[in-house]
Amino acid sequence: MQGLRKICDQKNWLLMLDEVQCGIGRTGTWFAHQHAAILPDVMTLAKGLGSGMPIGACLAAGKATGTFQPGNHGSTFGGNPLACTAASTTLKIIEEDKLMENAHTIGEFLVQEFKTRLVTCPVW
Questions:
Q1: What percent of the residues of the chain are helix, what percent strand, and what percent coil, each to the nearest 5?
Q2: Which of 9, 14, 20 has the alpha carbon at shortest distance from 68?
Q3: Is residue 24 a contact partner of residue 49, using CB atoms and an 8 Å limit?
Q4: DSSP label of 15
Q5: Do residues 72 and 40 make contact, with C-beta atoms less than 8 angstroms apart?
Q6: Which among 87, 72, 78 has a CA at the least distance from the CA of 56?
Q7: pLDDT for 84-103, tens place per residue?
Q8: What is the spatial distance between Cα 78 and Cα 22, in angstroms, rounded to a whole number?
Q9: Which alpha helices (DSSP H) does 20-97 contain, by range?
Protein backbone atom coordinates (compact mmCIF):
# COMPACT_ATOMS: atom_id res chain seq x y z
CA MET A 1 0.00 0.00 0.00
CA GLN A 2 2.82 2.40 0.82
CA GLY A 3 4.47 1.61 -2.52
CA LEU A 4 1.22 2.24 -4.34
CA ARG A 5 0.81 5.58 -2.55
CA LYS A 6 4.36 6.51 -3.59
CA ILE A 7 3.75 5.61 -7.26
CA CYS A 8 0.52 7.63 -7.33
CA ASP A 9 2.30 10.63 -5.79
CA GLN A 10 5.19 10.40 -8.26
CA LYS A 11 2.88 10.19 -11.28
CA ASN A 12 0.36 12.71 -9.91
CA TRP A 13 -2.36 10.06 -9.97
CA LEU A 14 -5.24 9.79 -7.53
CA LEU A 15 -5.10 6.84 -5.16
CA MET A 16 -8.60 5.44 -4.93
CA LEU A 17 -9.37 2.73 -2.38
CA ASP A 18 -12.45 0.56 -2.07
CA GLU A 19 -13.21 0.09 1.63
CA VAL A 20 -16.68 -1.38 1.02
CA GLN A 21 -15.75 -4.83 2.38
CA CYS A 22 -12.95 -3.94 4.80
CA GLY A 23 -13.86 -0.50 6.16
CA ILE A 24 -15.93 0.69 9.11
CA GLY A 25 -13.89 -0.97 11.85
CA ARG A 26 -13.76 -4.49 10.47
CA THR A 27 -9.96 -4.73 10.71
CA GLY A 28 -9.54 -3.01 14.07
CA THR A 29 -9.21 0.50 12.60
CA TRP A 30 -11.86 2.63 10.94
CA PHE A 31 -10.36 1.86 7.54
CA ALA A 32 -8.05 -0.96 6.41
CA HIS A 33 -5.63 1.48 4.75
CA GLN A 34 -4.81 2.91 8.18
CA HIS A 35 -2.77 -0.23 8.91
CA ALA A 36 -0.37 0.93 6.16
CA ALA A 37 -0.29 4.51 7.51
CA ILE A 38 -1.38 6.03 4.19
CA LEU A 39 -4.22 8.28 3.09
CA PRO A 40 -6.16 7.74 -0.13
CA ASP A 41 -7.37 10.58 -2.30
CA VAL A 42 -10.73 8.89 -2.87
CA MET A 43 -12.36 6.18 -0.76
CA THR A 44 -15.61 4.29 -1.21
CA LEU A 45 -17.68 2.93 1.67
CA ALA A 46 -20.90 0.92 1.94
CA LYS A 47 -22.13 -2.34 3.52
CA GLY A 48 -20.99 -1.92 7.16
CA LEU A 49 -21.73 1.80 7.09
CA GLY A 50 -25.45 1.26 7.62
CA SER A 51 -25.56 -2.06 9.53
CA GLY A 52 -27.72 -3.62 6.85
CA MET A 53 -29.48 -0.46 5.72
CA PRO A 54 -28.37 0.20 2.12
CA ILE A 55 -26.07 3.21 2.01
CA GLY A 56 -22.92 4.08 0.12
CA ALA A 57 -20.44 6.91 0.30
CA CYS A 58 -17.60 8.23 -1.83
CA LEU A 59 -15.16 10.44 0.06
CA ALA A 60 -12.56 12.67 -1.54
CA ALA A 61 -9.65 14.49 0.11
CA GLY A 62 -6.56 16.43 -0.80
CA LYS A 63 -6.07 16.96 -4.52
CA ALA A 64 -9.30 15.03 -5.23
CA THR A 65 -11.36 17.59 -3.31
CA GLY A 66 -13.59 19.39 -5.75
CA THR A 67 -13.23 16.71 -8.43
CA PHE A 68 -16.88 15.74 -8.04
CA GLN A 69 -19.31 18.56 -8.66
CA PRO A 70 -23.04 18.47 -7.91
CA GLY A 71 -24.79 16.42 -10.56
CA ASN A 72 -21.81 14.51 -11.97
CA HIS A 73 -21.82 11.67 -9.47
CA GLY A 74 -24.81 9.68 -8.31
CA SER A 75 -25.40 6.78 -6.00
CA THR A 76 -28.04 4.10 -5.90
CA PHE A 77 -27.67 3.99 -2.13
CA GLY A 78 -26.80 7.61 -1.47
CA GLY A 79 -27.75 9.59 1.58
CA ASN A 80 -31.45 9.61 2.29
CA PRO A 81 -32.52 10.59 5.83
CA LEU A 82 -33.25 7.03 7.00
CA ALA A 83 -29.99 5.60 5.65
CA CYS A 84 -27.99 8.51 7.09
CA THR A 85 -29.56 7.99 10.51
CA ALA A 86 -28.64 4.29 10.32
CA ALA A 87 -25.06 5.20 9.37
CA SER A 88 -24.73 7.77 12.14
CA THR A 89 -26.08 5.32 14.70
CA THR A 90 -23.78 2.56 13.40
CA LEU A 91 -20.70 4.75 13.83
CA LYS A 92 -21.79 5.77 17.32
CA ILE A 93 -22.32 2.15 18.42
CA ILE A 94 -18.97 1.04 16.96
CA GLU A 95 -17.27 3.63 19.16
CA GLU A 96 -19.41 3.19 22.28
CA ASP A 97 -19.20 -0.61 22.28
CA LYS A 98 -15.49 -0.60 21.37
CA LEU A 99 -16.12 -2.88 18.40
CA MET A 100 -12.86 -1.93 16.67
CA GLU A 101 -10.88 -3.03 19.72
CA ASN A 102 -12.80 -6.30 19.67
CA ALA A 103 -12.10 -6.78 15.94
CA HIS A 104 -8.39 -6.21 16.60
CA THR A 105 -8.36 -8.67 19.52
CA ILE A 106 -10.22 -11.38 17.59
CA GLY A 107 -8.04 -10.79 14.53
CA GLU A 108 -4.84 -11.23 16.55
CA PHE A 109 -6.25 -14.41 18.11
CA LEU A 110 -7.16 -15.85 14.70
CA VAL A 111 -3.74 -15.07 13.22
CA GLN A 112 -2.01 -16.75 16.17
CA GLU A 113 -4.26 -19.80 15.97
CA PHE A 114 -3.68 -20.16 12.23
CA LYS A 115 0.07 -19.92 12.75
CA THR A 116 0.01 -22.49 15.55
CA ARG A 117 -2.35 -24.95 13.91
CA LEU A 118 -0.95 -24.75 10.40
CA VAL A 119 2.59 -25.36 11.62
CA THR A 120 1.54 -28.38 13.70
CA CYS A 121 -0.89 -29.76 11.10
CA PRO A 122 -0.04 -33.46 10.44
CA VAL A 123 -0.86 -33.08 6.73
CA TRP A 124 2.16 -30.82 6.24
A1: 50, 10, 45
A2: 14
A3: yes
A4: -
A5: no
A6: 78
A7: 999 999 999 999 999 999 99
A8: 19
A9: 81-96
Instruction: Give the pLDDT band of residue 77 (cuts 50, 70, 90).
Output: low
Residues 28 and 103 sit within 8 Å (Cβ to Cβ): yes
Sign of torsion, CA 44 4 99 96?
negative
Distance CA 24, CA 81 (A): 20
Confidence tier at 66 by pLDDT (50, 70, 90):
confident
Tell me if 54 sits within 8 A of 77, measured CB to CB. Answer: yes
Q: What average pLDDT does the segment 14-22 reach?
A: 95
pLDDT for the residue numbered 67: 82
Q: Please give the helix or strand (H or E) that residue 6 lies within, else none.
A: helix 2-11
